[in-house]
Each structure stands twice: as structure tokens, then as C-alpha cells.
UniProtKB/TrEMBL annotation:
Family of this protein: Belongs to the DoxX family.
Transmembrane segment boundaries: 73-91, 98-120, 126-147
UniProt topology in membrane: Multi-pass membrane protein
Cellular localization per UniProt: Cell membrane
Name of the protein in its database record: DoxX family membrane protein
Claim: Nuclease is one of the keywords in the record: no
Keyword check for Glycosyltransferase: no
């Protein structure tokens, strides 16, 4: 059960109570938007940032760095997690499962970059932050403004 922390301005307690679920939904949706912007270019075969072919780059990473079997299939699953999973995260549907899967993806990315610990030019700070955000969403759940919440009330 949550305890009420000491508020900076106690008179604003009603505003904090009103804003918390709204801003948590915004946080969850923002994470989803970020994931969609990485997944859609892979699924649509479009360039993304400095990558002319992000799907080919993902497949190359899976095959030549991770040495996993079926790199094309795994690349497609990653793109679907980012693109479709990101959209579902925005809506708050299947939130805990998606957060767990995205957290595993972010920890994998961080561990691949980890030996050099670069903090600039595609450093690990972003996947580490996203992994922590995934864990928070996993344990917190979808929140009030989500399809998970709406559907669980209707059951």
C-alpha cells in the first residue's frame, strides 16, 4: 500500500492526487511512442536516424554479435514488439507483459554495449533508463487511464 509522502506544498494535495494518474499515463504513453518510432521504420523498411535500413542493422546485430539462430525471425519479433507493442503500451493494453518484454530487450541492448560503457553517441544511458522504466511499469501496472484498467472493471 502506498504511503503519502510529505508534500512540498500540502495545499496542493488535491492537484497531486488528480495529476498523478494523468502523468503516469503520459509517462507510459511516451515510452510507447518512443518504441513505436523505433519499430515502425523496421516494419516499413524506412530509414531511421543514421540507419539507412534499421531492420538489416537489427538482423546483423542478432546474427553477428549475439550469434542467435533465426536472426530474421528474431528481428521481426523485435520490430513487432517495438511497433505493435509500443502502440499497445500507449493504449495501456497488456501493459505488464509488454513492459517485461521491453525490459528484457533494453537490458540486452545495454549488456551488448556494456563492455565499453559509451555514454555518448548511442550510449547505454538510454537503454538503461528504458529498462528501469520498464521495471517500474511492470510493477506499477497500466494505471487508471488504460484499457487494462477499463477491461478489468468490466470483467
Amino acid at each position: 500500500m502506498r504511503q503519502n509522502p510529505t508534500l512540498l506544498i500540502p495545499a496542493l494535495a488535491p492537484l497531486y492526487r488528480l495529476g498523478e494518474p494523468v502523468f503516469y499515463a503520459l509517462l507510459r504513453a511516451t515510452y510507447g511512442v518512443i518504441m513505436v518510432t523505433h519499430g515502425l521504420p523496421k516494419l516499413l523498411g524506412q530509414s531511421h536516424g543514421s540507419m539507412a535500413d534499421p531492420m538489416a542493422a537489427s538482423i546483423n546485430l542478432i546474427q553477428n554479435v549475439l550469434h542467435l539462430p533465426m536472426p530474421g525471425l528474431i528481428g521481426l519479433l523485435v520490430a513487432l514488439l517495438e511497433g505493435v507493442g509500443g502502440l499497445l503500451l500507449i493504449l495501456g493494453l497488456g501493459t505488464r507483459l509488454l513492459a517485461a518484454m521491453m525490459g528484457i530487450q533494453m537490458l540486452t541492448i545495454a549488456s551488448i554495449l556494456g563492455p565499453t560503457w559509451p555514454w555518448i553517441d548511442r550510449g547505454i544511458e538510454y537503454p538503461v533508463l528504458m529498462a528501469c522504466l520498464s521495471l517500474y511499469i511492470l510493477f506499477r501496472g497500466a494505471g487508471h487511464y488504460s484499457l487494462d484498467h477499463t477491461l478489468s472493471r468490466e470483467l
